[in-house]
Specification:
- This protein folds into 3 domains: 226 residues, FAD/NAD(P)-binding domain (3-Layer(bba) Sandwich); 111 residues, FAD/NAD(P)-binding domain (3-Layer(bba) Sandwich); 105 residues, FAD/NAD-linked reductase, C-terminal dimerisation domain (Enolase-like, domain 1, 2-Layer Sandwich), CATH 3.30.390.30.
- The protein is α/β, with parallel strands linked by helices.
- Helix 1 runs parallel beside helix 9, helix 3 runs antiparallel to helix 4 and helix 3 runs parallel beside helix 6.
- The chain has 14 helices and 22 strands.
């Protein structure tokens, strides 16, 4: 078999990888992308899209939407004068819809590859050696030569020692998306993004959900006001969230699973559940690259060591997404993919990690960008804050979504926006305005002087900007 040659080879077909490949091809480089993970492909063929499209971002949002409609039909319609019978969930049909969306989007990437003349190679990519000015990469049984290599192998769920994940009774994110029926009792270890989203899905559909979190503070990485508001709202909805828990022995039982843990007061507790979701973070998927063979540097946690432009210590080798420092977010990976392709082309591509937005797609949604109030206090930065609740917003009231707030933190001297934090309906969309503002180093006064359509949820962001200067108009 002859060795194929490319200008650019991307190892991994997730958000960072396929975007890097498409952008490199757009810039005129002969580009290939390899992927070996089949996920749930019925033919067992490798699928593009990575964790995000196959078993993460996309399928979870499909389930969140369906479960939200189910809950609205059962509890929200009556208040608006809509009379329906008691809703019933067809789990199989819900999963069928979710899978159809995944199939459509992952197949769409193949269409984008064809449109942009990217060669897709099925197989696991691993380094072999430096061959002159190129890299020899083994992809499955094939050898490929490439002048530039982009590592975009993503991440995998972090599992707890002693807890076997079978994705039937004990699940990670993959199994949590495919439960064949609504469990009567669902336990979740980890109150992060995945735990809260999956807990919300199955609670809405009728499960009794208990969330066990090791940390003492709820959503400790978010702004302190966000954590307090979210805990209050989620508890009111019915999520049983227990903080400061140290997990002990986890055993499968005849009826499900038994979890022993120590609570925040040091007392031993036992929780019985039909199903368990383990969502305690993710780890970089770099153990199959043969990095040691070529001297590609990994840190002690398995991340590829890169500079601010995602260049590794090896000539012509880059890494993006979940395998490098920074938040493990699909949109961050995409930005890095574009940056690397443009850097290969000699352009000044960049990815500003300080303006990468975070989103949790619960109801209400949670989104933020920039610094939290506790970070500013720790760093000794003088700031002013403007915070406005959605409860007084006409659109929020009309949508029966009065929960939450928008909060803007601005430098006390320059008024430059340092952070924006939103809990509320459509927060995932509203945060984009804040990202744009911060990318242009806008001041709170800039947002305050921009006309926002009425009635819209975005008016609360506008009012929060006015509140930084203590001059809100509707609160």
């Amino acid at each position: 078999m002859s060795t194929r040659e490319f200008d650019v080879l991307v190892i991994g077909g997730g958000p960072g990888g396929y975007v890097a490949a498409i952008r490199a091809a757009q810039l005129g480089y002969k580009t290939a992308c390899c992927e070996s993970e089949a996920y749930a492909d019925p033919k067992g063929e490798p699928r593009l899209g990575g964790t995000c499209l196959n078993v993460g971002c996309i399928p979870s949002k499909a389930l969140l939407h369906t479960s939200h409609l189910f809950e609205e039909a059962g509890h929200g319609f009556a208040d608006q004068g809509i009379v329906v019978g008691k809703p019933r969930i067809d789990v199989a049909k819900m999963l069928e819809r979710k899978n159809a969306i995944v199939d459509q989007l992952t197949g769409g990437i193949k269409g984008l590859f064809k449109k942009n003349k990217v060669t897709f190679i099925a197989g696991h990519g691993r380094f072999v050696k430096r061959d002159g000015e190129r890299w020899l990469i083994k992809v499955g049984e094939e050898e490929v030569l490439a002048g530039q290599v982009v590592v975009a192998t993503g991440s995998k769920p972090r599992h707890l020692p002693g807890i076997e994940v079978d994705n039937k009774t004990v699940c990670d994110n993959v199994g949590a998306l495919d439960l064949e029926s609504v469990p009567k009792k669902l336990a979740v270890i980890g109150a992060g993004v995945i735990g809260l989203e999956m807990g919300s899905v199955w609670r809405r559909l009728g499960a009794e959900v208990t969330v066990l979190e090791a940390l003492p503070d709820f959503l400790g990485a978010a702004d302190v006001d966000v954590g307090k508001e979210a805990l209050k709202v989620f508890t009111k909805q019915g999520l049983d969230i227990r903080m400061g828990c140290k997990i002990g022995e986890v055993k499968k039982t005849r009826s499900g699973v038994s979890i022993e843990y120590t609570d925040k007061d040091g007392k031993s507790q036992k929780l019985a559940a039909d199903r368990l979701v383990v969502s305690v973070g993710r780890v970089p998927n770099t153990d199959g690259l043969d990095a040691d063979r070529v001297g590609l540097k990994l840190d002690d946690r398995g991340f590829v060591e890169v500079d601010e432009h995602c260049a590794s210590s090896l000539p012509g080798v880059w890494a993006v997404g979940d395998v490098v420092r920074g938040p493990m977010l699909a949109h961050k990976a995409m930005e890095e993919g574009v940056m690397v392709a443009e850097r290969i082309d000699g352009q000044a591509g960049h990815c500003n990690l300080d303006t990468v937005p975070w989103v949790i797609y619960t109801a209400p949604e949670i989104a933020w960008v920039g610094k939290t109030e506790q970070q500013l206090k720790k760093d000794g930065v003088k700031y002013r804050a403007g915070k406005i609740p959605f409860a007084f917003n006409g659109r929020a009231m009309g949508m029966a979504a009065p929960e939450g707030f928008a909060k803007i933190l601005a430098d006390a001297d320059t008024d430059r926006i340092l952070g924006v934090h939103i809990v509320g309906a459509n927060a995932s969309e509203l945060i984009a305005e804040a990202v744009v503002a911060m990318e242009f180093d806008a001041a709170a006064e800039d947002l305050a002087r921009i006309c926002h359509a009425h009635p819209t949820m975005s008016e609360v962001v506008h009012e929060a900007a006015l509140a930084v200067d203590k001059r809100p108009l509707h609160f």
